[in-house]
Amino acid sequence: MAASEARRAGKAQVELRLAAPGSAHAGRVLRESARAWVRGDETLSLSLVSDREMRSLNRDWRGKDRSTDVLSFPQSERGALGDVVISLDTARRQAREGGWPLSVELRRLLAHGILHCRGHDHDTPRGARLMAAAERGLLGADGMVGSSLSSQTAKRSPE
């Protein structure tokens, strides 16, 4: 079924590009989660890349000459949710540092990217609270923004 036919039938479309070495398992994890989170009338383009490619994208699109974990590119075209790019190298590092499985980190990054494509942001305290709640809705637990808010609150709390 072509993407346009699938959209008419109300089936979410997830286009996956695996451009990082050893990304087959990560790709399966992301595809499964994306299919659950992308709405029936939406198409999501998802790429798993190396730190090298992510650094290039981050430099070109955000003017920051360093790798990052996830980039989101919302689309205004009808039916197109957007493009989410995840660095598999960074996801692996963050999972190790966080002490959780790579699959958990990949889902956290994907949820974060999808929510940015849907217009969420965390630049203001109110926006961060709303985005954290939306991440919890997708993940059933704190996501990237919720974890950040929790650690900020803990730092401010008296001992």
> What does the overall shape look like?
globular
Could you spell the SSE succession in H and E letters? HEHEHEEHHHH
If you consult CATH, what is the topology of the largest domain? Answer: Collagenase (Catalytic Domain)
Average of the residue pLDDT scores: 87
Instruction: Bin the helical content.
Output: 40-55%
* CATH class type of the largest domain: Alpha Beta
Poorly predicted tracts of residues: 1-8, 153-159
Number of H- or I-type helical stretches: 7
Strand-residue fraction? 15-25%
- State the distance separating the first and last CA atoms: 59 Å
Give me the secondary-structure category.
Answer: alpha/beta
Explain how this protein is built:
By secondary structure, the protein is an alpha/beta fold. It has two domains: 7-110, Collagenase (Catalytic Domain) (3-Layer(aba) Sandwich); 120-153, no CATH class. It has helices at residues 3-8, 24-37, 51-62, 88-98, 102-117, 125-139, 144-156; strands at residues 13-18, 43-49, 70-74, 80-87. Strands 1-2-4-3 form a four-stranded mixed beta sheet. It is globular and about 35 Å long.
